[in-house]
């Protein structure tokens, strides 16, 4: 598989960066939670809740990368543990939905009687949060391009970075004007900001878990192209799915005309799949035209 070797070597880099991001996040979470509870700042508590999902999410991502990299000792795991990454990404999305819901609920109650929140400790905490999240953001940026799992952790850090900026604005407004609504307003803004990104992450993870074809692959056109190959009379049982981020798999049955050379048909089909559709890991069954009835007998 074209992606296979890169995936393994990249995992080693990802593990080191995830450990660093996890350490930064856990340290700041402790500080932010303590200050949020002490000052009664919903914006800080909201950001701390996001930081908690960062820490849990990065921990899940780390566990998933380690699991995916483990050698398949048991032969029944024919696809290894790569799907662990996708499950971790989905768990991240569920956590973020829960946090956003809690913050919105809590903020609505506070709008009736906003409590006084001291601006200085909130502002100082936000500045520390921006520095820590910016560091974690840079650590995970490259890996997020090639792994859905790391993209989940990266999106959480990104939302928390923007959340910390929101908390800074809240603290500065409170510090300079004493306006009590700044804190719950910013808390709601943080909750609403993260929801569309979370939905996008959940949607991608569910597409993989339901084994949908990658969005870039037109399966109908793929069937047409396979059928148009020299010697092929029909393409059926064509399946394309994603194992995990960057690892796409295909299988197909090709019925061939009498006199066609199966080995030549196989080479042409694999070349088409690899060059035109970037599907380098494909299982192609070449069969006589009169053998296709067995496939049609299946009820699914």
Automatic annotation (TrEMBL):
<feature type="transmembrane region" description="Helical">
    <location>
        <begin position="51"/>
        <end position="69"/>
    </location>
</feature>
<feature type="domain" description="Cation efflux protein transmembrane">
    <location>
        <begin position="18"/>
        <end position="209"/>
    </location>
</feature>
<dbReference type="Pfam" id="PF16916">
    <property type="entry name" value="ZT_dimer"/>
</dbReference>
<dbReference type="InterPro" id="IPR027470">
    <property type="entry name" value="Cation_efflux_CTD"/>
</dbReference>
<dbReference type="InterPro" id="IPR027469">
    <property type="entry name" value="Cation_efflux_TMD_sf"/>
</dbReference>
<keyword id="KW-0406">Ion transport</keyword>
<keyword id="KW-0812">Transmembrane</keyword>
<feature type="transmembrane region" description="Helical">
    <location>
        <begin position="117"/>
        <end position="140"/>
    </location>
</feature>
<feature type="transmembrane region" description="Helical">
    <location>
        <begin position="81"/>
        <end position="105"/>
    </location>
</feature>
<feature type="transmembrane region" description="Helical">
    <location>
        <begin position="21"/>
        <end position="45"/>
    </location>
</feature>
<feature type="domain" description="Cation efflux protein cytoplasmic">
    <location>
        <begin position="215"/>
        <end position="288"/>
    </location>
</feature>
<comment type="similarity">
    <text>Belongs to the cation diffusion facilitator (CDF) transporter (TC 2.A.4) family. SLC30A subfamily.</text>
</comment>
<dbReference type="InterPro" id="IPR058533">
    <property type="entry name" value="Cation_efflux_TM"/>
</dbReference>
<keyword id="KW-0813">Transport</keyword>
<dbReference type="InterPro" id="IPR002524">
    <property type="entry name" value="Cation_efflux"/>
</dbReference>
<keyword id="KW-0472">Membrane</keyword>
<feature type="transmembrane region" description="Helical">
    <location>
        <begin position="185"/>
        <end position="202"/>
    </location>
</feature>
<dbReference type="InterPro" id="IPR050681">
    <property type="entry name" value="CDF/SLC30A"/>
</dbReference>
<protein>
    <submittedName>
        <fullName>Cation diffusion facilitator family transporter</fullName>
    </submittedName>
</protein>
<dbReference type="Pfam" id="PF01545">
    <property type="entry name" value="Cation_efflux"/>
</dbReference>
<feature type="transmembrane region" description="Helical">
    <location>
        <begin position="152"/>
        <end position="173"/>
    </location>
</feature>
<keyword id="KW-1133">Transmembrane helix</keyword>
<dbReference type="InterPro" id="IPR036837">
    <property type="entry name" value="Cation_efflux_CTD_sf"/>
</dbReference>
């Amino acid at each position: 598989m074209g992606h296979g070797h890169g995936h393994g070597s990249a995992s080693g880099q990802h593990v080191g960066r995830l450990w660093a991001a996890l350490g930064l996040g856990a340290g700041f979470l402790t500080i932010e939670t303590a200050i949020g509870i002490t000052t009664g700042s919903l914006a800080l508590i909201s950001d701390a809740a996001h930081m908690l999902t960062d820490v849990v999410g990065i921990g899940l991502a780390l566990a998933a990368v380690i699991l995916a990299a483990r050698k398949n000792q048991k032969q029944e795991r024919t696809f290894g543990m790569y799907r662990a990454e996708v499950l971790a990404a989905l768990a991240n999305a569920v956590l973020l939905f829960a946090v956003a819901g809690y913050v919105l609920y809590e903020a609505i109650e506070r709008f009736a009687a906003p409590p006084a929140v001291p601006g200085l400790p909130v502002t100082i905490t936000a500045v520390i949060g921006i520095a820590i999240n910016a560091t974690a953001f840079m650590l995970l940026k490259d890996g997020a391009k090639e792994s859905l799992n790391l993209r989940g952790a990266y999106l959480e850090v990104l939302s928390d970075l923007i959340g910390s900026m929101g908390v800074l604005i809240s603290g500065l407004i409170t510090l300079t004007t004493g306006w009590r609504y700044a804190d719950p307003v910013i808390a709601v803004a943080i909750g609403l900001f993260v929801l569309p990104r979370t939905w996008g992450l959940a949607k991608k993870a569910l597409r993989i878990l339901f084994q949908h074809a990658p969005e870039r692959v037109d399966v109908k056109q793929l069937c047409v192209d396979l059928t148009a190959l020299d010697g092929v009379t029909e393409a059926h049982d064509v399946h394309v799915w994603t194992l995990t981020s960057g690892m796409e798999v295909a299988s197909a049955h090709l019925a061939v005309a009498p006199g066609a050379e199966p080995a030549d048909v196989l080479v042409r089909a694999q070349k088409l799949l690899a060059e035109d559709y970037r599907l380098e890991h494909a299982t192609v069954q070449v069969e006589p035209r009169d053998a296709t009835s067995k496939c049609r007998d299946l009820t699914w």
